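Aim 2, interim progress: modelling of the adenosine-5'-diphosphate-bound target.
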Amino acid sequence: MTASTPAPTLAVVGGGQLARMMAQPAIALGLPLRLLAEAEGVSAAQVIPDHVVGDHRDLETLRRVTAGCPVVTFDHEHVPTEHLHALEADGVAVRPGPRALVHAQDKGVMRAALERLGLPSPRHRLVTAPEEVADFGFPCVLKTTRGGYDGKGVWVVRDLDGCAEAFAAAEAAGVEVLAEELVDFRRELSALVARSPSGQAAAYPVVASTQVDGICHEVVAPAPDLDPDLSARAQRIALELAGALDVTGILAVELFETTDGRVLVNELAMRPHNTGHWTQDGAETSQFEQHLRAVLDLPLGSPAPRARWTVMVNILGAPEDPERGEVGRLWDGYPHALARDPRLRVHLYGKDLRPGRKVGHVNAYGDDLEDCLERARHAAAWFRGDLGDESE
Ligand code: ADP
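Predicted structure of the complex, ligand included:
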């Protein structure tokens, strides 16, 4: 008889909801996780008992977390590149690796790579002063090259005065400013792929996402009425990028579908992504399990959808409104939400409600898109507190 090899422990940096949702398939796979959490009690630390509390910008802390772990992966993209190189030098497999990850950390580097690969981007230029923006042409979009998320670090500007905020923010953060053409888009798409170190890849159906103020609100899988050629093109772009940049794990490619029928790459994420949450209930292999398989170089699972349609709607804390006082319900929302829709799938992140904060999401799948939209939107609005008790 041969002794069974013990499962390796996978180190995960960052204690947000993405790490929390990796824990679910890790349990099923019998895979131990060790977490670096930014504070005691954060979303993933609630469900991963083997955690260290510390700062992901501190190399010694990273070494403590990865000690004895053959592989490290991430909940976010904020670990300094030099620390990732140091961990690699220690013999830890960093997945995705620093050479890939920099394309998700730095929008200037990402745009340059797309150009090199001949992949479609909005017209763009690194700019150092408002006069250069004027030369690039108004209206346009200014972005800080690093540190932006959920629409923070993105400004639509129409004149010289409008540029001040972006340059001030970039200077304060010690980063650069990227100018991009203001794309006239029909909608935003996302092409999600997974790639393993040995080069196996899998592509999920291309989805449509709705963003409000730069924050993802809703995802429909697959993107309704998407031209099959454009869909294949989006998937090919994502697969090509995953290969060319040597990505391991999930790569999410956010794209604009332009009004004249093209796709342009907006940005990249190299971790499970909000536009892939639908896969938890709507695909044969969720993006979280796929990410674990990919970073551990296990064979990938099927990315095929389980239903004709899946709709994901985020549960966001309602905006501050002193007249309404505290709004939103999480645990208290279950009796109505679950009784109204026995097929609804709810995912809460163990976070307190705060204005604008993503605290969970719901998935509804089925044969009828309108029905899925109604069910998922109703449930999210209910948890958010936008529907009164009379809707019970
Ligand atoms: P973040 O890092 O915050 O996700 P993004 O680069 O994705 O920043 O931009 C946030 C949102 O701003 C996008 O989802 C899109 O709605 C809008 N946006 C970004 N770039 C452009 C552009 N070049 N043209 C038009 N809208 C844009």
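Residues 123-181 form a domain with the Dna Ligase; domain 1 fold (CATH 3.30.1490.20). The mean pLDDT is 95.
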